[in-house]
Amino acid sequence: MKEFDYDVVVIGGGSGGYAAARTAANADLKTAVIEGGKKVGGLCILRGCMPTKALLYAAEVKHLAQHPEPWGIQSKQVTFDFTKVMARKDVLIKEFADYRRLQLEENTFKFIRAEARFTDKHTLALSTGEKLTAKNFIISTGSTVAPDPLPFLEKLDYINSDDALALKKLPKSMIILGGGSVGMEFAQFFARFDVKVTLIQRSTHVLHEFDTDATDVLEGVFRREGLTVYTNTKLTDAWQKEGRKGVSFLHGAHEVRVEAEEALFALGRIPNTASLDLQKAGVTTEGTRIVTNEEMQTSAKHIYAAGDCTGPHEIVHIAVLQGETAAHNIAFPDKPRRMDYRLMISVVFTEPQLATVGLTEKECLTRNIPYRAASYPFNDHGKSMIMEAKDGFVKLLANPTTGEIIGGCCIGPVGGELIHEIVTAMYKRMTVQELAAMPHYHPTLAEIWTYPAEELALEIQPTPGGLP
Question: Which of the residues 119, 219, 341, 454 has an alpha carbon 20 to 30 A from that of 285?
Fold first, then answer.
């Protein structure tokens, strides 16, 4: 047997990498983590989930302070200090990152600060000049901002999502290219801090992976709050002159030209794998994405991957589960675990928040999956009316034969929190009949789920034999 330096080497110290290393070390495998980034913490802590949500919450507080009239409250002009808004975000992120660094440095595995690349199937060359070997590897190197999809965008000195989180002052106006979750969250944040925002989306709806009844609500809220939203567009040119940045695009049969003080490129991220020399390790990729099976194993049987570098969902809790799954399967090959995306959760932290779990109607129709759906609006629900949070609805999808809940959607107040009731129900494979019978306190936001559950429970009457 060849002697290796480590049983497992994890490349990447973000959420997925840390979860993988912790799991491997707890299984008594000699483990090392290699992190090549300038800062420790991973995308979620440093440039993703945590900083953006800190800013979005600040924007929500400001928005509520500016609009207290429905509750009979009067306020003078609301002002803000953008430097302090960003400083609070920075303090929070430093606390999160410092804690992650301590977890990496003080755990039972070795933590190495260096960039790494494969020289063969079992060897890494480090930027420090050292080499190390391992019997197994887990790659969890995350993602990076996607390059320009169109050559003419190079004319535009735009900022990306990383740059937006480091702004020292607010522009007066901004063009946002992209209507995915990143573009939508930044659009509302900047607009609520008095930036004139124009959002340009290629597809016919923003957040095109979600059901259109939910995205229609969000587009309506954005326009009501003063944002300009263009969908179904095709970019044709870009320019920059005299301190202004501009783009032109086709919108229907017409060409539209828009200028602003700043432009934000929010057209996605790509796996961060280019520097790893994966071909020398025998790892198959599709573009820059590492291909894995359900056990998170790559084409090289001793190499696994987790997180944004492999997908298919670039979400931090998925990265954690993938990292844990990969490490478990290395430690216990006779008892393999497989990733199950049945309980896939997505949340967009706009206001109202948009959250889903399981299947959407769009997915059911595309995959020919039979379903029944029912929804209920927040503008007819007691607690949300009290809160003056009347935009949106909840929706349940159920198996039309058994009544088992197969999907849920919430576009409304604290949707990212409310969706977890349906996550719990689906985890236990509950039916709409069971959810409808479950007691809910009144008045709460959560009790809104009982209304579509009751409607579906009346429609779907399963028999003991499983037939309708």
Answer: 341
Of 463 and 465, the structure prediction assigns the larger pLDDT to 463
Mark out the alpha helices in 122-201 (DSSP H runs): 161-164, 181-192
Give the ranges where 67-180 is alpha helix by DSSP (H). 82-105, 161-164
In whole numbers, what is the pLDDT of the chain averaged over residues? 94
Residue with the two structure tokens 């960039």: 115
* Homologous superfamily, domain 6-145+270-339: FAD/NAD(P)-binding domain (3.50.50.60)
Which of 370, 373, 368, 314 minimizes the C-alpha distance to 344? 314
Give pLDDT, residue 252. Answer: 85
Listed by start position, the domains of the chain span 6-145+270-339, 151-267, 342-459
For residue 467, pLDDT beyond 60: no
Q: pLDDT at position 464, please?
A: 58
In this prediction, residues 101-109 reach a mean pLDDT of: 87
Mean pLDDT along residues 163-188: 96
pLDDT at 468: 44
43: tokens are 């995308």
Q: How confident is the model at residue 76 (pLDDT cuts 50, 70, 90)?
A: confident
Residue 422, pLDDT score = 98
Distance CA 219, CA 147 (A): 27
Q: Is 3 exposed, middle or buried (0-12, 13-18, 19+ CB in 10 A)?
A: exposed
Q: Are strands 6-11 and 131-139 parallel, antiparallel or unpaired?
A: parallel
Given a contact cutoff of 8 angstroms between Cβ atoms, the answer to whether 18 and 323 are in contact is: yes
Q: What is the pLDDT of residue 235?
A: 94
User: How many CB atoms within 10 Å of residue 430?
Assistant: 19
In whole angstroms, give the CA distance from residue 189 to residue 211: 23
Strands 405-412 and 110-113: unpaired
Reply yes or no on whether the pLDDT at 466 is more than 60. no
Fold of 342-459: Enolase-like; domain 1 (3.30.390)
| Orientation of helix 212-224 relative to helix 181-192, angle to 10° | 20
Q: What are phi and psi of 51, to 5 degrees?
A: -65, -40
Kindly tell me if the per-residue pLDDT of 42 is higher than 90: no
